[in-house]
């Protein structure tokens, strides 16, 4: 009986999931065992290596976003701030003595302040001393006298005059203040020197090294004024004092305080010691050390501010 070449319906293959590729050759007959015959001709096109896909296009050049306006503004602000800091540093160089050229110019300008600035600016009519008294109490001082400017002749005791002589005296300004109770008086002085920055640093170093500001024989002399609470403020009434050679301006600031009632003080004490808590000397107990230091602090700060403002305006 001949073997049928048609596929057995039981053994018929399942329909493929994907559509079959169209073929032109007739389906090869199966053998008696049901296996397809081994092909002897060239391979079917379905088994040939696929054609390689085309090469992907080259990556385009990276896109550079346009600079944002905010970044440009930020960069400009940083530049302005940086320039301002440099300018501020240059201005500070005059006060700190970091620039030789600016220091020399600043010293020349500061040396002439005494005849360019009103007396009420150099020596304000009142000085507020918040927390400047003993135990942190507030103090307030009122100016009662201003001495005519002079050339320092006879203004200091000989030992102090000798100690200050290396810097020379260009001009001396003095004023006297009284406290709110009218019980203490304080003379403050500003000696404008002829020295340069190096000379002032040398003087300051010597005062610090030899502790000259604590020597009783180097006490400044007071300025007494008739008809005021300081009328009896003489050499014997000197109780506490401070002397400060400055290095940012060619000026020596000093103060000396005493009792307004004219009493003699047998144990004068430098302000740096009289303000220490627990001191039992008359100057310390009466707060005269606080007066000397408080008045000196405020006059010195005002002088530095005036000098700095004058230098800024001249630029």
From TrEMBL:
Region (Disordered): 1-68
Low complexity bias: start-end ranges: 24-35
Compositionally biased intervals (Pro residues): 12-23, 36-60
The organism of origin for this protein: Streptomyces macrosporus
Membrane-spanning residues: 73-95
Keywords: Membrane, Transmembrane, Transmembrane helix
Protein name from the UniProt record: Uncharacterized protein
Superkingdom as given in the UniProt entry: Bacteria
């Amino acid at each position: 009986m001949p073997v049928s070449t048609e596929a057995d319906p039981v053994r018929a293959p399942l329909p493929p999931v994907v559509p079959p590729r169209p073929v032109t050759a007739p389906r090869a007959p199966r053998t008696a065992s049901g296996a397809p015959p081994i092909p002897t001709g060239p391979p079917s096109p379905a088994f040939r290596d696929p054609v390689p896909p085309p090469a992907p296009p080259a990556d385009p050049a990276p896109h550079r976003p346009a600079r944002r306006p905010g970044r440009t503004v930020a960069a400009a602000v940083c530049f302005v701030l940086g320039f301002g800091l440099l300018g501020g540093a240059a201005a500070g160089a005059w006060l700190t003595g970091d620039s030789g050229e600016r220091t020399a110019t600043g010293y020349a300008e500061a040396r002439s302040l005494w005849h360019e600035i009103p007396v009420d600016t150099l020596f304000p009519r009142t000085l507020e001393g918040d927390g400047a008294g003993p135990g942190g109490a507030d103090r307030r001082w009122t100016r009662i006298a201003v001495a005519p400017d002079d050339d320092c002749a006879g203004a200091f005791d000989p030992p102090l005059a000798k100690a200050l002589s290396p810097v020379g005296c260009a001009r001396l300004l003095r004023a006297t203040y009284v406290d709110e109770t009218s019980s203490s008086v304080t003379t403050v002085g500003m000696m404008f020197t002829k020295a340069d920055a190096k000379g002032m640093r040398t003087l300051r170093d010597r005062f610090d090294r030899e502790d000259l500001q604590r020597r009783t024989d180097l006490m400044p002399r007071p300025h007494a004024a008739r008809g005021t609470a300081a009328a009896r403020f003489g050499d014997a009434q000197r109780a506490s004092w401070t002397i400060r050679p400055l290095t940012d301006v060619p000026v020596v600031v000093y103060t000396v305080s005493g009792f307004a009632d004219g009493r003699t003080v047998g144990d004068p004490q430098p302000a740096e010691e009289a303000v220490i808590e627990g001191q039992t000397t008359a100057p310390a107990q009466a707060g005269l050390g606080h007066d000397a230091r408080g008045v000196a602090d405020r006059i010195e700060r005002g002088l530095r501010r005036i000098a700095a403002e004058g230098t800024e305006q001249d630029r």
